[in-house]
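Continuing the batch. This is chain 6 of the set; chains 1 through 5 are on the previous pages. Same settings as before, nothing changed between runs. Recording input and output for traceability.
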Amino acid sequence: MLLLDGKIAAASVKEDLKKLTATIAASGKPAPHLAAILIGNNGASETYVASKVKSCEECGFKSTLIRFEETVDEAELLAAIQTLNNNQDIDGILVQLPLPKHIKEQKVIEAIDPSKDVDGFHPSSIGKLVQGLPTFIPATPYGILLMLEHFNIQTKGKHAVVIGRSNIVGRPMSILLSSNIAQGNCTVTICHSHTHNLKEICLQADIIVAALGKPEFVLPEMVKEGAVVIDVGITRVTDPTAAKGFRIKGDVHFSSVAPKCSAITPVPGGVGLMTIAGLLKNTMQAYQNNRG
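Output for chain 6:
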């Protein structure tokens, strides 16, 4: 069983970006610049954003973190995004999700300039993705592609089952896996809450991408011998015996599923780290598009 270690794959991506940034600096040009907006004090969001800022530093990128209180007015947030859109020194913009309930998520996503949409959520980015045009790939699916590439996981002609149909992971992942690209050319089945015979469908899969947000949902009786399992889930589960009072669980019951797999991602330490790698790659692409 091959452990698809996100630390190893992400370190490789970061090293390549670090070298490219050093070359840019040697030519006298400014470094790529990522701006992140964080609203409120959600613990998971704080952790994600801190990791993104740290990763920018490791690659030689410049980063700016803009914080707002949970009660921020939607109009104020949209105005801040517009200011970043107009700032030529900013290459990429991300607004950390989830947002407070009084702010319309789609409105915020659409407010970001598509040329700076390094999270890959803008309808323009998704539309180009569907048509196979150059665009920013949503960071998590992009990170998964980078992981498959790093570990030389063969996908051509395989049957991939994607559990979950979110616009952030499930849908774009299904499009990419079915696309005529190096880490694509799969026959793809998308499963969701209304899917019948989910176990039987999963048992046909050469590759399973679990992205439904239910801890330890995928059990060994759903996975055939030799399958590749990509666990996108990351849920904080209360555990009084843990030092922090909780444990991070994926969508896959790792200890029982792993022995059946030819390759599997851990949680934590898997797809989450690759999401940041995908974000950094998108930021460099935005820099090259706009200032290269």
